[in-house]
């Protein structure tokens, strides 16, 4: 019988063997656990988690939640080109459908904030959705969820962004303010505390938060409907709001239509007639086409199809298009459109033109279709 007291790697001191295994990215952990009982015990141990945390070796993660995955978050490891499921959160409403939340990564943690929970049980048709102030945190070192300090105001469909290591939220709606909230607040993850901010000049619902040039921009759901859009801008140092007119050509059909790279480059998806990726000239403010998102080719369908409802994420200088759906015309009978849910993952480097898209490993398990949440976590100084 194999003993957990055996050396981790025969011929190496255990401290050196631990260092070697701690450098292996998270996408390979399932495979490592099959090598031996000793390795499985180690990979799941607090010793392993604490060692990786001490060294800051969290790895690179792309988190996603799809409409089909029943609150089962999944994570992608670009180094291993593997998806794997995260543990499910076992708290209140864990089996209810979650939507309208925000998700961000800060200080090597994933935060899932607020949103609306609705029962998936069809026997409860009159049960109203619950709009919450909950904050859930996933620790990639311990690979576990826990509840953090709640927001001061329950909200869903709100603006959210990380600036300077703090999480800013504004607007949205709840059951007492269905037409929009003006309230804003900020979360400091180092002390697990929310602080109230001055309210916005005007309430906003179904809004998007963006960190741009060190300020929080709150963009309304009217973005893209005119040549000039009004956004509400929060100055962090002065703690004041103002309104600004600017051009933000974001998709009206996506929650995740904008990504800001580490060097400040801004990319967006525009889907008016065709799916294009645009970038912004930080000096002049104009938008330029980078390239198109390729159509979807199904093996049993002759025509190329345009996807919708997909996720848009940035990780390690690359842009990711995740999941989504297409409408496929079926000629049988009187003819109809069938919805096909996708698990596709497509990647490109926006600095290399023309864009060259490649397919990464598809999402795992039942994860497919519309993306309800996605966020990326990048290890600092990763090579």
Automatic annotation (TrEMBL):
<dbReference type="InterPro" id="IPR001810">
    <property type="entry name" value="F-box_dom"/>
</dbReference>
<dbReference type="InterPro" id="IPR036047">
    <property type="entry name" value="F-box-like_dom_sf"/>
</dbReference>
<dbReference type="Pfam" id="PF00646">
    <property type="entry name" value="F-box"/>
</dbReference>
<dbReference type="InterPro" id="IPR011498">
    <property type="entry name" value="Kelch_2"/>
</dbReference>
<dbReference type="InterPro" id="IPR015915">
    <property type="entry name" value="Kelch-typ_b-propeller"/>
</dbReference>
<dbReference type="InterPro" id="IPR006652">
    <property type="entry name" value="Kelch_1"/>
</dbReference>
<keyword id="KW-0880">Kelch repeat</keyword>
<dbReference type="Pfam" id="PF07646">
    <property type="entry name" value="Kelch_2"/>
</dbReference>
<feature type="domain" description="F-box">
    <location>
        <begin position="10"/>
        <end position="47"/>
    </location>
</feature>
<dbReference type="Pfam" id="PF01344">
    <property type="entry name" value="Kelch_1"/>
</dbReference>
<protein>
    <recommendedName>
        <fullName>F-box domain-containing protein</fullName>
    </recommendedName>
</protein>
<keyword id="KW-0677">Repeat</keyword>
């Amino acid at each position: 019988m194999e003993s957990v007291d055996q050396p981790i790697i025969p011929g190496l001191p255990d401290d050196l063997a631990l260092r070697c295994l701690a450098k292996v990215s998270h996408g390979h952990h399932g495979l490592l656990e099959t090598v031996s009982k000793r390795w499985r015990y180690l990979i799941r141990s607090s010793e392993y988690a604490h060692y990786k945390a001490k060294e800051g070796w969290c790895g690179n993660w792309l988190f996603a939640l799809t409409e089909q995955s029943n609150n089962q978050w999944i994570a992608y490891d670009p180094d291993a080109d593997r998806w794997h499921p995260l543990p499910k959160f076992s708290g209140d409403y864990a089996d209810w459908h979650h939507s309208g939340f925000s998700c961000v990564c800060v200080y090597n943690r994933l935060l899932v904030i607020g949103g609306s929970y609705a029962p998936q049980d069809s026997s409860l048709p009159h049960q109203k959705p619950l709009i919450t102030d909950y904050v859930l945190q996933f620790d990639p070192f311990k690979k576990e969820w826990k509840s953090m300090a709640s927001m001061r105001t329950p909200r869903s469909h709100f603006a959210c962004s990380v600036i300077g290591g703090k999480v800013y939220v504004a607007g949205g709606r709840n059951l007492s303010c269905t037409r929009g909230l003006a309230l804003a607040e900020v979360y400091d993850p180092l002390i697990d505390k929310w602080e109230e901010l001055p309210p916005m000049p005007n309430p906003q619902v179904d809004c998007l938060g963006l960190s741009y040039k060190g300020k929080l921009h709150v963009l309304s759901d009217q973005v893209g409907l005119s040549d000039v859009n009004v956004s509400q801008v929060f100055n962090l140092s002065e703690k004041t709001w103002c309104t600004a007119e600017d051009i933000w050509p974001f998709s009206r059909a996506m929650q995740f239509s904008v990504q800001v790279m580490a060097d400040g480059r801004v990319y967006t998806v525009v889907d008016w007639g065709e799916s294009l990726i645009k970038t912004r000239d930080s000096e002049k403010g104009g938008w330029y086409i980078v390239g198109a998102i390729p159509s979807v080719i199904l093996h049993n369908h002759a025509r190329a199809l345009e996807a919708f409802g997909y996720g848009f994420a940035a990780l390690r200088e690359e842009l990711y298009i995740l999941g989504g759906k297409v409408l496929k015309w079926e000629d049988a009978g009187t003819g109809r459109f069938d919805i096909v849910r996708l698990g596709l993952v497509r990647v490109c480097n926006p600095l290399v033109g023309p864009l060259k898209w490649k397919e990464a490993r598809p999402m795992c398990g039942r994860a497919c279709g519309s993306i309800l949440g996605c966020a990326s976590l990048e290890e600092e100084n990763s090579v």
